[in-house]
């Protein structure tokens, strides 16, 4: 696998080695050993999958301490724009984001460390999205910031009038009204 660094330290794009032939393709979607060598030590404990249709936007989500989550995400069918926003108080990149297109064809994965809000927008007719988490889901620790916060400067590639949001996701605060539970440490 190749690890591509982004503008925000710790947030990386992973490109697997794909082996193609007349039968199709094969790739190792996750190796704990290689992940630790190239990205760092993370013990994933839960895998999730969602299916969504064009225009669905999920996020920007995180879990509050002590149940913070790092995530390794990928799109196994369709196409999504995936985004991580730095919400660590004191971080030199606080409020900045990294966006990457994840598709069934590019097989890219995106690693989002703890201290980031995460979301995605479905750009294809449907998309199947998978993510590994290093902490179990704790509904009492759910948090989020508004996925439509214009101050974040995210181009979701979907006209706002076509965005499909859950009721919960329409109620998250803007970044300027948000008190982050995360603190940056070098």
Automatic annotation (TrEMBL):
InterPro entries: RmlC-like, RmlC-like_jellyroll, RmlC_Cupin_sf. The keyword Transcription does not apply. SUPFAM superfamilies: RmlC-like cupins. Pathway: Carbohydrate biosynthesis; dTDP-L-rhamnose biosynthesis. GO terms for molecular function: dTDP-4-dehydrorhamnose 3,5-epimerase activity. It catalyses: dTDP-4-dehydro-6-deoxy-alpha-D-glucose = dTDP-4-dehydro-beta-L-rhamnose. It comes from the Bacteria. Its EC number is 5.1.3.13. Keywords: Isomerase. Pfam families: dTDP_sugar_isom. Belongs to the dTDP-4-dehydrorhamnose 3,5-epimerase family. Catalyzes the epimerization of the C3' and C5'positions of dTDP-6-deoxy-D-xylo-4-hexulose, forming dTDP-6-deoxy-L-lyxo-4-hexulose. PANTHER family: DTDP-6-DEOXY-D-GLUCOSE-3,5 EPIMERASE, THYMIDINE DIPHOSPHO-4-KETO-RHAMNOSE 3,5-EPIMERASE. Homodimer. This is dTDP-4-dehydrorhamnose 3,5-epimerase. It comes from Phocaeicola intestinalis. The lineage of its organism: Bacteria, Pseudomonadati, Bacteroidota, Bacteroidia, Bacteroidales. The gene is rfbC.
